[in-house]
Amino acid sequence: MRVKNLRNYLQDVKEKKIPFEHSVLRQIASLCNTLPAINSEEFSNTFLQEYNDVLLVTYLASITKNSAVLNESIDRYLVSHERQGKRRPFMRENN
Prior knowledge:
It is built from 3 helices and no strands. By secondary structure, it is mainly α. The protein folds into 2 domains: about 1-35, no CATH class; about 40-95.
């Protein structure tokens, strides 16, 4: 509840709804500096797991995109050779 009030105060100051006071901002900064940094084994493991999940999704998206591009290239190749195959017998008959 108090953190929400601080956040609302800072948001109002940012939007210039209320004038800011240097002393209040210094107190908020001091309070934030006293908070412990998150440095636990559980946090590290969770962070690494989430990071690896993001990398995996990015990798899979890249593979999917490249597969679609490759499929389109193969389709174009087959269509062009199919057209050439139909032309060749016609050309041979005229020779």
